[in-house]
Amino acid sequence: MVVKALHIDVDGQVKENRDVSLVCTVNAHTKNPKWFHNNKEITQSSRVVVVSEGLEYKLIIRNVQFEDDGLYVVAFGRVTSCTTMTVKGETNQLVKEQLSGKLFSSWVRGVLGLKHLKLGLECIAEKEVKRRHSEMLKTLPHLEKPCISCSAASLYPLHNKKQCNRKQNKNKCLCSGSQYNRRPCPNGGYCSQFYDQIVFDHRFEHPELENTQLERWSYDPWSVATCYINTKGYKGKGSSKEIDCAGLLCLFINNRSYLTDGNYGVFDRARTSRNEILHNANYELSEDQLHEYLDNFKDVLEVKNNANEDVLANDESVKEALKAIDKTGIE
Hints:
This protein is elongated. The protein is α+β, with helices and mostly antiparallel strands and about 325 residues long. It folds into 2 domains: about 1-90, Immunoglobulin-like, CATH 2.60.40.10; about 95-330, no CATH class. α2 (about 100-140) packs parallel to α7 (about 285-300), α5 (about 245-255) packs antiparallel against α6 (about 265-280) and α7 packs antiparallel against α8 (about 315-330). The longest helix is centred in the middle third of the chain and has 37 residues, at about 100-140. The protein has 8 helices and 12 strands. The protein has helices at about 95-100, 100-140, 190-200, 220-225, 245-255, 265-280, 285-300, 315-330; strands at about 1-10, 15, 20-25, 35, 40, 50-55, 55-60, 70-75, 80-85, 85-90, 155, 185. A hairpin with a 2-residue loop joins β6 and β7 (about 55-60).
């Protein structure tokens, strides 16, 4: 006899993607019963398992799906017990419909492509930032300890206004007459000379000093690198993993000493694509737009130098990123 009818051993509703147990208790030991779902006998699998514990018989369903909805019957020969299970979604139907929308799905794939681009650039940026920092240190005076006398508000460059070689943004140089209360670095002009090097590397001759910490220039490559990101908010970032994709693209656009000079336009197009994806008013992309953006991301990772040689594509992380972007483009 059935002592306790078949029931679902769960608190509250049966939720999608959760594990549940259907339990029935009898009054005597018996042969293993048969289990049925919507009148079809259940075959055990890695997801659906039948177990017994004394006089208690269980049907365990892992990772419950909507197709598990319906009538369940356990049969001990002629003695049976039944119950109905209704699976509730983790999200309501309206949200599910929105998530499955074609235009929104394409937008999500665009964001995913952006993520893969960022992962592909991380290792390359880390190497380039450290390489250029090491080169710059070789041209500067030796310091026994980091300079703590200079700041973005007090530093004066190694040159004066008459000696300024800037071709653009001369009025924004620290030597400009509008820059008051500044003085050259007291440590043999170290920070002043470093600033001139940073300006020389900057394609547009206008480093963002609000992104940097001058006292770290002598030993921290990323305190220098963040000068080349023209959007504020990167001060104190210490590795490529801490920099978003827009910031990493800015490094290659604005620093002409990183990898390639003549082909920086592909990085600029990728940054524009990134902005158009993330600033999309309706979070929707057509399939054609998606593939245009993904192609722009791939162009960055496949960029060539002036000798038509691959610059990034031989790196293993870049190869993985390219494969991932290709898969993102497949519907």
